[in-house]
Amino acid sequence: MPSGPPAEPPEELTAPLAYEGVWRFTAPALESSVPQARHAVRDLLRDQRVPTGPDIVDGLLLITSELVTNAVQHAALLSPQIAVELAVGADWVRVAVEDNHPYRPKALEADEDDLGGRGLWLIKMITAEAGGKSGVEHTASGGKVVWAELPLACVPSPTSPSSSL
Hints:
By secondary structure, the chain is an alpha+beta fold.
C-alpha cells in the first residue's frame, strides 16, 4: 500500500455554503435596540438566503427579542453597550447576546400573575421544541454571552442526489 498524505476531499465537499458566516454588531443597552436587533437578524437571514422555515425564523426573532430585552433590563447599568451575534453554519443558526454584567441568569417559570420573568424559560422552550440548544457562558472580560442555536430547515447536502450542481 502506498504511504503518503491522505487524500483531500474535493473542494465542493469542504467549502462553506454561500449563506454560512458570522455577523456581529453592537447596540446601546436601550429599549429601542430590541426591535432594531430583531430587524437586523431578520434582514441578515433574508439577505444571506439562509434556508429557514417560517417557524425557525419566528422562533429566532422571538429569541433575539428576549435576549436583547434581558440585556437591556438587567445589564444596562454595567453594560451600556451590548453585542448581538448571528452565526450560521451549514445546518444551524445561532443568535447570541453579550453584555458586561457578571450575573448568569437562570430560566425560571413565572407565575401567571407575574408581568415578566419568563424570557429565558421561553427561550429554552422554543429551542427545545425546535431540537436546538441554548446556554450561558462567561466572557474573558467578566461578562456573559447568552445564546440559542436552532437547526435550519432540511437542507440538501451538495452530494445528495436531489441537489443539482
